[in-house]
Amino acid sequence: MAAQIFSAIFVIIIGVGGCVAYFWGANKLLDVIFPSRGVSGTAAVDNLRRQGLVRPWLFVGPAMIILTIYLIYPVIETLRLSFLDRGGVNFVGLANYEWAFGDHDFRNSILNNILWLAVVPAACTFLGLIIAVLTDKIWWGTIAKSLIFLPLAISFVGASVIWKFIYEYRGEGQVQIGLLNAIIQYFGGQPQVWISLPFWNNFFLMIILIWIQTGFAMVILSSALRGIPEETLEAAVIDGANPFQIFWKIMVPQIWGTIAVVWTTITILVLKVFDIVLTMTNGQWNSQVLANLMFDWMFRGGGDFGRGATIAIIIMIAVIPIMVWNIRQANKETGGH
Amino acid sequence: MTAKTGKSFASRFGVHIAVLVFVAIWTIPTLGILVSSLRDKDQIIASGWWNSFASSSQTEAGRLPAAAAQTQKDGKYVIEGNIFGDGARREISAFGVKAAAPTQYKAGTAADLGDGVTLQMNADGSFVLASPKAFEGERGQRVYYASSAPPKFTTENYDAVLFSEGIGRSFMNSLTVTIPSTVIPILIAAFAAYALAWMRFPGRALLIAVIIGLLVVPLQMSLIPLLKLYNGVGTFFGVPSKTYLGIWLAHTGFGLPFAIYLLRSYIAGLPREIMESARIDGASDFEIFVKIVLPLSFPVLASFAIFQFLWVWNDLLVAMVFLGTAPDQIVLTAKLNALLGSRGGNWEILTTSAFVTIVVPLIVFFSLQRYFVRGLLAGSVKGG
């Protein structure tokens, strides 16, 4: 273990030192090859121009290399693998896609993912907005926000354990130590094994993600609400609008852009949801989702890369519209710069 | 807005109550595992954690020793002992011999079981079963008793998970993964972000678009090709394919688009006059970056560092693909996932391990919340 800590420290030093050495050294080298100081006027101008051509690439080079290896190449390779067999050798055409749409688990995953997409972003945004508005009105709102924000720092696995404890079911005659079943029992209901109830178990898993992500929506929306001009609210009050009208007709329309950003961010997260399903049910009792199914196929029976890649592509296809929208938005913003 | 929208006392009061309910829902689950992790492991299953400050009581069934244990005393056949054996002592309040009436007799009284047989059970668990005739049979008398134990809090669970369940080791592994994975991307991203914000070169707009596109590419797209690549490299050089170096680079790669995006939008917003006056004074791009941009960008660098730290610390997927599951490599999240499988019912282990797992993010979060929120606001297109 000591060796491990030592090697981690060593790597930090090497990594950071290496980066510094590269950026410093490459710049120095450029200055030496095309000197701009101490040479005649025209030569200096020429060399400055040459430096200007090369230097940006020295700056973005390392990032581009890493992005190419870790993201761009894999995207292309995954697309290619989705047309190959389990070992990634023989071309099988669309066989993997045909398999997918005929497979029970896959269809179940698609349906569950759609359910997640319909519920989680909406619930997080709605709850986040309500909490943001309410906490703005009270003196201890900051503390309240901090506490609701807190689950965002907790890992999905940690959150799963936390909620598994709440959903815990103990056989008849035993004390229910899970909060949910204890409450149900207190009101005279029948304790249930919540996470193995087909269909409904999806919602019990979704609650975990909603619990984590509402804080995110709340913080972003709260800052957007602060940006609403006071005059519009004052005018509404003078016109005799009630709080609900102010909320729906004055506040919400002014922060549509932010709501869209929150919604899409959570949508992408939902498409990739993996940890919660793996730790809570591992896809049993019809709670499978695409990301977990993909992980399953990556390693099942030595791994089926063709099918795994196909499932990844299908997740990717769902993300593409958001990706295009993001790039368009960003182009609009940076167009002037 | 306070004065304008919440007019009546009733509606103000309603807001306080509503927020209180939300705060309760959002904190009680975490409180549950914190409290449970400090409870005695027998009490965790005997009562809900919300009752942990009350004595836990339960009704149990036991069997007295068989005829072989009898002794003769004052002309009677007697079986003596303590129902708890060598186990934890609890306090018995009542006992019985029929399942239908498990608390028929008060502790300390003698129950008449018929045929002159008497059974006395005391509060401390000791019992005396006496009979004028010799006991027979292989099986002892069935008894039922209600017992209670005072609330007991302990740090034993922490000792157990840290030192014998391997959580302590995993904690170190998580640190080993997280710190380099947080530090390495910062410099690489900062240089790229400066170039994309303040240097003019062909293809810049395209590069920015590519990075924004990569922000939302699901991690799942990278896993299989990288797994193949790592296996290939491992075989080719005759080294293991699952190494810390491998996961550091992977996290660097996955974190870069967000890092560049976040830093670029901040650096692009720095005042143009500062850059230009430095340039007029003869400073090169490198000097401007190191002496002006880096120091001014400290808040956003901190934001990114916190994000990346939390993301890497909390990650399960990348760790499961790129690291092994041996004790020297398994990180906290993966270990916790493994414990859920192997120790599914041992809530003292699970709650304690979960708390150890989340304590570092909570500390980072509470101490650096300002930077965290700033990063969140600046980079909310990132999908997590």
- How confident is the prediction overall: mean pLDDT of chain B? 85
Task: Provide the helix percentage of chain B.
Answer: 55-70%
Question: What is the total number of structural domains of chain B?
Answer: 3
User: Can you tell me the CATH superfamily of the largest domain in chain A?
Assistant: MetI-like
Oligomer classification: heterodimer
Name of the CATH class of the largest domain in chain A: Mainly Alpha
Structural class of chain B: alpha+beta
**Would you report the number of β strands of chain A?**
0
CATH class of the largest domain in chain B: Mainly Alpha
State the CATH architecture of the largest domain in chain A: Orthogonal Bundle
Task: Kindly report how far apart the N and C termini of chain B lie.
Answer: 33 Å
**What gross morphology of chain A would you assign?**
globular
Largest interface (C-beta under 8 Å) = A-B, 121 and 125 residues
How large is the share of residues in beta strands of chain B?
5-15%
